[in-house]
Design a protein that fits this description.
The chain is an alpha/beta fold. It has helices spanning about 1-25, 35-45, 95-105, 130-145, 160-165, 185-195, 205-215, 250-260, 275-280, 280-295; strands at about 55-60, 65-75, 80-85, 110-115, 150-160, 175-180, 235-240, 265-270. The chain has an eight-stranded mixed β-sheet, with helices on both faces. Helix 5 links the parallel strand 5 and strand 6.
């Protein structure tokens, strides 16, 4: 009996040791530099236009004093339309450039920024839309104050940025639309899906989730952007790569079913994670254009 207790105690200690290690790995961010992101963008698409547009860099202090680095990309024509783009995990504002030309062509001014822990911002952990959504609200409030001429204001997000854009809707921001590209509805499901693909026991995710809650003070039960949609009436365009195996299309499907407002869902054939705009740029741009036309925002 004594040996059984000892063995169980050792197993428990090992499980929690692995759990805390997994928690740290999950919550940590290894961000790209702006230069690395630019090089990647240049290899995958034409961003030569970026050097020729009017840009303004500034910072915004978030709800807890955390400083976010922001950039306005001004449309060549006078415009009262603005869209705020949130990039994906480990990326930065340069990674948002793949979407900027679509909005410039539609007459929008574009605001890009580095998410918490990314780009030029101070290093910190990722909370998978919890703190990030509050940051986005701070950015929306700042933008409304800074650009008082705004008549149309929208959000566009990719992956973590999409989850952040959806999660912030729980705070009822004054925005006209959201475009959500390959966002997750529930990060725990994504992590378990990854473990399944690697043929590893999924229960370890539950251990890691428990450990992360203890160490970082944010339960994974709050990392569920889908919960922000139960009473949402802001129009949402969901776009997802049909071949996305990291954050599978069912995430967008679940969120579309949950939201109360007008929504559309378009799957991009053969597109992997966060690659829809490259796989079929023409259709992507058309989906955004027609969505905004439907809302009488163009």
């Amino acid at each position: 009996m004594k040996w059984i207790i000892i063995i169980l105690a050792v197993i428990t200690v090992l499980l929690f040791a692995v759990g805390f290690r997994m928690a740290d790995t999950t919550m940590s961010i290894k961000p790209q530099t702006l230069e690395e992101a630019r090089e990647w963008q240049q290899e995958h698409g034409d961003i030569s236009w970026y050097d020729n547009v009017e840009k303004t860099d500034y910072t915004v202090s978030s709800y807890d004093g955390y400083v976010l680095h922001v950039q306005l990309i001004k449309n060549a024509e006078e415009s009262r339309k603005y869209v705020l783009i949130s990039h994906g995990y480990t990326d930065n504002r340069i990674g948002s450039l793949k979407y900027v030309d679509i909005y410039l062509d539609l007459g929008f001014n574009v605001i890009v920024y580095d998410l918490r822990g990314h780009g030029l911002n101070e290093k910190t952990y990722c909370s998978y839309s919890v703190r990030e959504a509050k940051d986005l609200i701070a950015l929306i409030d700042d933008s409304k104050e800074r650009y008082k001429d705004a008549e149309v204001f929208g959000l566009h997000g990719e992956s973590l940025g999409a989850a952040t854009s959806i999660a912030c809707l729980q705070y009822n921001p004054e925005v006209n639309f959201v475009v959500s590209d390959c966002g997750f509805s529930n990060i725990t499901k994504v992590l378990k899906g990854g473990m399944k693909m690697m043929h590893m026991p999924q229960f370890m995710v539950d251990v890691a989730v428990f450990c992360a809650g203890i160490k970082y003070g944010i339960p994974f039960s709050k990392m569920r952007p889908v919960d922000a949609l139960k009473d949402n009436e802001i129009p949402i365009l969901f776009i997802h790569g049909a071949a996305d195996r990291f954050i599978i299309p069912e995430n967008s499907e679940e969120m579309q079913k949950t939201t109360k407002g007008y929504s559309e869902l378009h799957l991009i054939k053969d597109a992997d994670h966060a690659a829809s705009v490259f796989t079929d740029h023409e259709s992507y741009a058309e989906y955004v254009k027609e969505f905004l036309k439907t809302l009488n925002l163009l």
